[in-house]
Amino acid sequence: MLDDTSFAIHPGNESKVFETSFHDIGRMVQYKQKEEGLCITGERGYVTLQVYRDDIIRITMNAKDVPTCQSTPAVVATKQHIAIEVEDLGDWLTFATKMMHVIIHKDPLRITVKDQEGRTIVSEQKYGMAYKANGEVICYKERTERDHFYGFGEKSGFLDKRGETYTMWNTDVYAPHNPETDALYQSIPYFMVLRDGKAHGIFLDNSYKTTFNMKSNEQYSFKADGGELDYYVMAGPSPKQVLEQYTYITGKMPLPPKWALGYHQSRYSYQSEQEVRELVNTFLTKQIPVDVIYLDIHYMDEYRVFTFDPERFPNPKQLIQELKERGIRIVPIVDPGVKKDAEYEVYQQGIYGDYFCKYIEGDIYIGDVWPGESAFPDFTDEATRKWWGSLHKFYTDLGIEGIWNDMNEPAVFNEAKTMDTSVMHKNDGNPATHRALHNVYGLLMGKATHEGMKEHLEGKRPFLLTRAGFAGVQRYGTVWTGDNRSFWEHLQMSLPMCMNLGLSGVPFTGPDVGGFAHDTNGELLTRWTQVGAFTPYFRNHSALGFHYQEPWQFGEREEAIIKRYIQMRYEWMPQLYTLFQQASLTGLPVMRPLLLEYPEDEKTYNLNDQFMIGDNVVIAPVMQPSVTDRAVYFPEGEWVDYFTNKAYEGDKMHLIHAELDTLPIFIRKGTFVALSSSRPSTMTAQTDLTLHIYANTSGVYENTLYDDDGETYQYESGNYMQMPVKVTCNDDNVEVTIGKKVGKYVPAYENLSVVVHGLADSQTFTVNGERKSTITMES
């Protein structure tokens, strides 16, 4: 309550960098090798080591008993059968896989993991695993000055996360976010370490409040307020391999519907059918592309979920159908709070079905949210999840294909900002308090929503936007970064936030374009829309009581520029959709920090104001007012300005001029991007496809373009198109090889055009061995 006063810096509140009141596990007493792994009894605790894959090891400590090794809902991986041979060398034990070498020092019990080349991945020296009598558990690891930290999910501040402490406790934070705002809406207790160009990862699978202390130059720690110390070490050695390993454990994003990649317009709130129709008419009249209009809480009948206000929205089915015929979908907000109302059917079902969260004594937990006094579904229970999922037939019957989950930390209007931590959840037969399960509440609401929508859509892909989540959230939903502000600083902060979410296994993410609260202005909205056009999730959203910020709100000049970049989003759709399909298979993000592609280049390690789309496009936005020139760092290679075709030498910084109508975009020489014409929405068929080739004098670049119907799951049974493209450059020729298409999907475009940029006078240009610029889309 006094955190925003000088009391917060009272001398009695001083904290130490590292706590020493934990009880160390002590020395090893005995060990046994079992089928499930190596079981160790320590002086003050028990440890299990399990090899999940040759490049992933799981380490679990319980201070009181043999570890149960019960995973949170984040984990979907199955342990592979990897035979290990433990050697007892007196003072230590050792075993190895094809990718890792594990050394266990006996007195005191300390664990070191090395890679197959002998490089230390993680090690423990003075401190190791420890616990407190109150149930807290902690692990210390050695670190070097060369260690750089990434991930941690949704965190403010710079890209490199060393030097700070991070708390995982899903929290509704409306107050302006700043670099020290911690915690936020998402809790992803995972991070990646980059050291000398090599990477490894750690995932702490614990749903209690967890804390990661990265402040010391000598060691770091991760601790949990309860439960077992249960963590995975991923060997890398590249950042991309760490992401593959992490998403092997927690799952990968499903391929989203193509319309979810379009432009989304939102407001807290568009409060009537008339306002929504006027909004849509303006988009169509001005020929500004749009795919989605959002309905915030005012569409409901007194904020009751699964209802429409009969006066403001008297015929929602007709509205939704009319908009869909015009190429636009509706996505409504659905919060977890169910209004306490004996005459409200959803509340009745929750009571009769025993679906709401309760105290151990049996009383239903009631908290105050938008509807007033409300009950909260216990999403840790399978029966409740199925019930909640079934309720979404209300929306799908109206023609709705996407849902927006908000307030699902869960947020409650009280001092603690959330549910009473002594509430007892069913937890699928293993009851636990809200203190233990708070961080997975939003994840499990997302699971219930996604699975319910998928069932009721009968073959169509659902879209889910969620504010809260845990590790594994990518399996169910898209994440936006919550209640930001219309500040330039929040535009700047959004880049490292989204990049670190991408490095945390969440490829589909983005901020509220223009800022949610505070009054935006024409210049800020224009620059933010330019960024949003290349952010995986592209939504403009603003709050009640602040300036409307639709594309036309700030004058003709700004409107024209904003319209152009929204159109550009649709022009880049073939390239983006290919990247999303690759993300669904590999776990790699669409929006990438440069270090992901250039881990040997130290200049990329804390590059906060640039990002990449895929492996060959650099975006360097202007994110300060009245600025038209900025420094841009180019990694190795040569890079071509998308608008001017001017080439820039890599491995150095360049000063780039960018007036308000220009977003600096650069494509690496020797590569290509796949573009099309703009469309009013993704419901309008794509009728052309053009490969833009950026000539070089050497090198080979390959990528496989992907397409399907963008709406159904028929791609799982072969109704897709994959088309390999190879660009080979030398001093004399640029050769584009279009490989044989794979899959049964036939796109609407019949021809593929090829355009080359920067061809030297001495070079020829050929497509499949012939001097032509168009080929037919035949198999």
Automatic annotation (TrEMBL):
Keyword annotations of the record: Glycosidase, Hydrolase
The family this protein is said to belong to: Belongs to the glycosyl hydrolase 31 family.
Alphabetized InterPro entries for the sequence: DUF5110 (IPR033403), Gal_mutarotase_sf_dom (IPR011013), GH (IPR017853), Glyco_hydro_31_AS (IPR030458), Glyco_hydro_31_C (IPR048395), Glyco_hydro_31_CS (IPR030459), Glyco_hydro_31_N_dom (IPR025887), Glyco_hydro_31_TIM (IPR000322)
Domain DUF5110: from-to ranges: 689-758
PROSITE patterns (UniProt xref): GLYCOSYL_HYDROL_F31_1, GLYCOSYL_HYDROL_F31_2
One Gene Ontology biological process: carbohydrate metabolic process
Domain Glycosyl hydrolase family 31 C-terminal: 587-671
One MF term in the entry's GO annotations: carbohydrate binding
Domain Glycoside hydrolase family 31 N-terminal stretches: 47-212
UniProt source species: Pontibacillus litoralis JSM 072002
One Pfam family per UniProt: DUF5110
Name of the protein in question: Alpha-glucosidase
Glycoside hydrolase family 31 TIM barrel domain segment(s): 254-579
